[in-house]
Structure formats: structure tokens, C-alpha cells
Amino acid sequence: MVCEKCVGKVLICIMNILKLIKSRCAIRKYQKKTIPKSILTKIVEAGRWGPSIVTLQPWKFFVVTSKIKIQQIYQIVDRKIHKIGIIGRTVLFSTSEAIKSANCLILCYTTGDFVKVNANLGKKYVSLAKIAEISAISAAIQNMILVAESLGIGSCWLDTPLFCEKEINKLLGIKNEKLVAILTLGYPAENGKRSKRKPISETVKYL
């Protein structure tokens, strides 16, 4: 039997996790303060321990701390936002500003390993394999942003840089992986705001 004291500790742990999930929000402005490598290692380690697909772990994380490289990636994304005619869309401009302000970027890639395993099974299975890889990497990213939050590090999960994958890959010399997202990290220089959730009756059905 599990002792009442142990059950109590587990419940407290669950409540703390739920509190962290509910309070965590996107941060797009950061202090000019270096994140220690020991903290970055813990964040990346959380990603590495995300749920995998048949143990393949179809991800690669490129951790960028070079101010020069961060500035170059910012310029690539900012130019693309202007080029494709989306000037004035605040959220998209805040994407490039989040990159510019960040102390660290984690570029999250899929290796395509699960797709390769299913390559001989036909287009349908390859398509499903791609979705499965994105799901696994998304879970890994969620791990990283929650651990970052628990360590006092703000983060923002960015998809807009996918428009610039070719240019970013050329800059960093990346050839064989596909970009899924960029995670910006830094000590918060703003108070983020958590968006309200839709009523549970609209998004959850018990069958």
C-alpha cells in the first residue's frame, strides 16, 4: 500500500505542475543577461527526454548563444516578414523582435528518421510518419519551455521562422534536417499575459 504521506506529496507535485502550465506564457522581451550553460543544459535535457517514436528520438536541437548568429537570424526573419507583405501585423513583428532580444535560441529540427523507416510503405504512411515526428518534437519543446519556466527563464515558441528555413539552414550549415520551430530564451524583461481558455464544454468531450 502507498502511504498517505507519499500520496500527499504526489498530489502536491501534480498541483505544482498544473500551476506552472497555467501560469506560463510567451515572453518576447528579454534582459541582457547571459543564461548559464548549466541552465541551458537542463532545458535541453528536458527536450531529450520527451516521448519518442519507437525509440528513434527524431530530433536535433541546435543551441545558438552567439550574439552575431542571433542577430543574423533576426535579420533573415525580419527581411522575410517585410518581403512577403505582412507589415503591420503586430504578432509577426514581435516574432522577429523576440529573436533579436533573446539571449539564446534553440532551433528544433526533425531528422526524418521515422519517415525513412516508413518510406517503402507508401505516401499515406510517409504522411502519417511526418505528423508523428512533429508530434514527438512538439512534446520535446513543451518539456523545454516548462523546465525553462521553472528555472526563471522566459521563452517563446516561434513558427514564423519556418518561412525562412532555407536561409537559416544556409547560415548555420544545416543540410539534412527539417526545421520545426525556434525557441527563444532569456530572463524576462516584461510581464507576459496568459490568454483565457475556451470553456471546457467547447473543447473536451467525454465518451
Keywords, separated by commas or semicolons:
single chain, 207 residues, NADH Oxidase, four-stranded antiparallel beta sheet, 4 strands, 13% strand
Name of the top-level CATH class = Alpha Beta
Poorly predicted parts: none
Assign the CATH topology: NADH Oxidase
Helix amount, in percent? 40-55%
**Whole-number total of structural domains:** 1
Order of helices and strands: HHEHHEHHEHEH
Architecture per CATH nomenclature, i.e. the level-2 architecture: 3-Layer(aba) Sandwich
- Mean of all residue-level pLDDT scores: 87
How do the strands of the widest beta sheet line up side by side?
1-2-4-3
Computed structural class: alpha+beta
Query: What's the helix count?
Result: 8
Biggest sheet descriptor: 4 strands, antiparallel
Beta-strand percent range: 5-15%
User: What general outline do the C-alpha atoms trace?
Assistant: globular
